């Protein structure tokens, strides 16, 4: 089955790829990134390496895309290869008439526990949203504070710590002890402030702290790890197995959070999961919420034995609230667990017309500064 074309699709819903073959079987992938036009450009750069190749040789084509580049790695390459790779798995599943998770060894679990994120500009608002999620059967909730400061382009470590403590206390009181809390720190804190936060919130028994410090230097977790018993999680901004190696081998984190659309696709995420398994580290896959990426995230979460949770939009319990016209169906969620997609390949139908009908919106991430005007992390 030869690849005849690779088409990059830029949409307000994300960056998508359509891979066409000479057997009239097409696959779709997603590589959403914070630099979508750069990812589109990288997909075009990789296209000549793919045309005329056998679409069923997924591992070979992954190596081709990664190793033929002299400058490799990083978010742009990781996202572009991910989009292509996911599309190839979609093709192979369709050709064989089975879901992708069957190609990965079958179901490692019957369903995937999911967590829902909530946001709010006050403790009362975010606690109310968390309570609604818990009442719908969601058993794990992720949140962060300082949404109100993003609009002001401000981040102050101490103020953010105190607000996260306030939100944590309010959410725990609202949802009770049976719901797991995940503190999202977004990689904003310097290590000493991450220690401050961890010490104060430990009494509220969070499931883990997510990205408490910046991601560039994994060894910086040595400044946090000895001071808290709260599990630590990171990895959404790592883009291939080589970038995950130090996190795994250091033993400094408890959960890895690769995103299948950013870390090189299903092929690479399978290797990251296997590497983590040898160190008894579980995965909580990051999900960029894109419609194809969500489907791909479901398949790897069903097939890999060491997946603990999957990020899924909070409204997953109410499909009518979701925009499913780009790729459908959306995973069904019952009592806090997502059920397998049943169709061949990724199990979703992709609408190019719907994707193109939503043009990308220009914009930037918040340009955060400290009180003294110096740059802070978003």
Task: Characterise this structure.
Keywords: Lyase, Metal-binding. Residues 357-378 are annotated as: Disordered. The structure is a single chain. Strands 4, 5, 6, 7, 8, 9, 10, 11, 13 and 14 form a ten-stranded mixed sheet that branches. This protein has a three-stranded antiparallel sheet with strand order 1-2-3. The protein has two domains: 3-98, Enolase-like, N-terminal domain (Enolase-like, domain 1); 102-356, TIM Barrel (Alpha-Beta Barrel). The chain contains twelve helices and 15 strands. Helix 2 packs antiparallel against helix 3, helix 7 packs parallel to helix 8 and helix 9 (241-250) runs parallel beside helix 10 (265-277). Helices cover 37% and strands 15% of the residues. The relative contact order is 0.15. The termini are far apart. The radius of gyration is 20 Å and the shape is globular. The model has no long low-confidence stretch (mean pLDDT 94). It is α/β, with parallel strands linked by helices.
